[in-house]
Every structure is written in structure tokens, then in C-alpha cells.
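[job 4471] stage=fold_predict status=RUNNING
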Amino acid sequence: MTIKEYSLEAKRTMSQCESTLLDDLHMVLGMQTESAEIADVYKKHIAYGKDLDLVNVKEEIGDLIWYIANLCTLKGWDLEDIMQTNIDKLKVRFPEKFTNDKALNRDLKEERKILEL
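[job 4471] inference complete, writing C-alpha cells
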């Protein structure tokens, strides 16, 4: 399945709220909820010794992607373009590979140029 196909299928199951702002907020709060559910799996493993339920982690990642795809749909953004822009920004930040120095001493002006293209 391509990202575009996924986005179309995800849109089919998206509810509509009373306003554009509430639709956006639904997606944003959903992303937060799904991220917290992923963190909870790891918390329960570390703190309580429960088995690390990677099946559940994969499920929650899918749910997170659903919210991300639908927020992009609501805003008219192409998720593939966002992904490419993110990689382009990271190439400016880390031309060779990740380093602590580059992470701490970022060229925010150059990164912003990439984001505004």
C-alpha cells in the first residue's frame, strides 16, 4: 500500500466535528493519545515486568499513522512531501551522520529555509 492509498482509506473512516478547528484538534489529541499508549507498553515492561507487547506497539503505531494521515488530509498537505522535507532538513542538520555536536549546534536558519520551500 502506498502512502497516498493509505491516506485515502484513512479519510474514509474519519469523523467530522463541528468545525475545522475541532477536526484538527481531534487529530492532534488522537496523536497524543496513541503516542501515550505506545509509551505505556514500555512503561509497563520496565516498571512492572510485563512482557514487551510489540504486537500492541505495532497496532498503536498504525493508529498514530491514521491520525497523522488524516491531519495531513484536513490541511491539504501531502504526507510524502512532508517526509521528504524532513529528510532534507536532517541532511542539513547531519550532513554525514548524527553527532552530538551537530544536534546541539544546529543551523536553524538553514533548516528553516528547507522547511519554507
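[job 4471] summary: Helices lie at 3-12, 20-48, 54-75, 79-93, 100-104, 108-116.
[job 4471] exit 0
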